[in-house]
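To: structure desk
From: M.T.
Subject: fold request, one chain
Message: Could you run this one when you get a chance? Sequence is below, nothing fancy, just the single chain.
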Amino acid sequence: MTTTEPERAQRSWFHDAAAPGAVSLDYCVLSGHPCPAEPEDGFLIRPADRRQLAAYHALRRENFVVEQELFHGSDADDIDDDPRTTVLVALAPDGAVLGGVRLAPATAEDLGWWTGSRLVVNCGRRTRGVGNALVRAACAYAESNNVLRFEATVQARYGAMFTHLGWIHWGDTEIGGVPHARMRWPIDRVERLAQATKSMLGPLLDGLGTGPMTLGGSGFRGDDGAPVPGSDLIAACDAIIPSMVERDPEWAGWCSVLVNLNDLSAMGAEPVGLLDSIAAPTRSLLTRILRGLARASQTWDVPVLGGHTHIGPAALSVTALGRAARPVPGGGGHIGDELRLTVDLGGSWRPGYQGRQWDSSSHRSGAELRALGRFVTATAPAAAKDISMAGIAGTAGMLAEASGVGVELDVTRIPRPANAALADWITCFPGFAMLTADRPGAAISDPGPAASAVCGELASSPGVRLRWPDGTTTTAVPGTVTGLGHS
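Reply: Done. Structure tokens follow.
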């Protein structure tokens, strides 16, 4: 296999001297026996320890250096020296190494772009299925370690085997005079999140009708908040999932205020008050929910004007009211507009929600939080949305969809905390975070304690694409996110 990582020589994942007409998938791709036998007790694939790693290197030398003479003296390279490299090995019941494969980040900073290489099988053991299993295990291992792009470059004659395993052919190259195919494992993490959290909205909300002010009316359809007819009021409403209310009631109460004030902020509105609706099976749980909600209300200095509270199954929703002379729509972007992320990187992962919820707000003072909330109002961009449950990538798709366009995100320019993997960061709830779109070079106001950077561009093709350091783009969401269409 050959990797496409910057500043690394091309190399092949699979090296084999088998005849081009060979038909056995394992034998064709690996250097295995032509008539492999079924193992009596199967095999186990796991990350290699020191002894197993030595056996894996010995297998590579035997196959690639001695037998096939693809390398002179040694097939070791810089990937072997990278401490981030992981080797997966297949072990027989007696502990013998039946084969192995290595995985490693393709860039100096791990952005979630990995490559696989040096897959080898012990041909002397004649064990069926090891090669395919190692490829599948490599894919699973990559996805479980926050990889968003996983690739291999293999000899062209092995492309069919990779396609059979679900890989996608995305290009061709030639290495040492031998045709190779560039293969990519389809990782749909962003798309699955968008489907789970937002894709049902269009079909469901169609049942509400098409009145002139339904779902915010023209220009604000499906927006973070809705203009109240005949006034300068903006209304926003969000609910907290019941499992979170039961598991972490104070945090749920705090977040019920946070997400609603973020909605008002994205609309360019100044908050004036809150209405709550709370239910819990016990008085104790009600008290804890209200404690978190009250602390947030006091910190932001936005009063709870009223609401409803009762004993019953856990439920929590809040409506926020604000004022905006000129509301900022979520769908006001145009092709060529710059997409900017303004996000508070302070704080840490919320305990119990590692990789899913970033708590940037609970340590901030009221003055800091109010300053953050005024960013969109002061900047007055063409379009704005706060980051929702669909994460940064999914919300970028929502802004683009509402604007009738698509979006391309540059993964190297997305502001993120040093201890947050890119895949987690663009799919989590990041606390305070705003996406804004405006003409190139448009001025912005002081973001306060937040970081702010242009990280993408609105484009003509629908969906969300990620641009990587080598200039390659991959599709994160192939089409619309909500199905609500142009606002």
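Reply (cont.): The CA atoms of residues 149 and 399 lie 24 Å apart. Let me know if you need anything else for the meeting.
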